[in-house]
Amino acid sequence: MKGRVFDVQRFSVHDGPGIRTTVFLAGCPLRCAWCHNPEAFAGEGARLRDVEDVLAEALRDRDYCAASGGGVTVSGGEPLLQAGFVRELLKRARAERLHTCVQTSGAVPEELVRSVEEVVDLFQFDLKHLDGQRHEALTGVGNERLVENARGLAARGACVEFRLPVVPGFTDDDANLRALAAFLTGLGVRALQLVPYQRMYLDKYRALGLAARCAHVEPPSAAHLERVRRTLAGAGVDAAVAG
What we know:
single chain, TIM Barrel, 38% helix, alpha/beta, 10 helices
């Protein structure tokens, strides 16, 4: 079993609980205006790697992972486009008693989500914009699939941490925040992680010769994030800044 991998980061501390190895897989159905990993769709640096090879790299830090409650996270891009590889990697990681996490946009067919569900301890699921037309303008696709996958995971009792990328002027308008809160509370979810936009990724676009649509956007200030948090709290959702 091989997967198209463009990076493996050891000692990650922001991609799930504890100390983790994060495996970044190439390919994505979205083209988010603020995408921090353009390598995922540009194909830059991606190469085929065996499950055994990737797992062996993760197991180098087994003791640190075990002591911190960490494990293996698969990210992207959209890792569920390579669901077979993800399933086998996380199945093997679980057999080694490592915690498993998938970071997903949810913008994939439902059968791909279901195919990995039994080997995933935690889904980190991004919700970008609840208005379908606005979502398409920001990412290149509508939000129908991700909405249905979010509902399905919640209904089946999966462990899901929903996240909002806070991109000033793009995802943080009051209408979206209120719609997002209504959607989450309708699922019985009352917690949300805020992932602040940052600019460190812009060098990647320059190196790849790509145009970054959000190059002019400044990261949200503490006051800005507090406004977002208060708006969500007023609608019944407890939001906290990730990391």
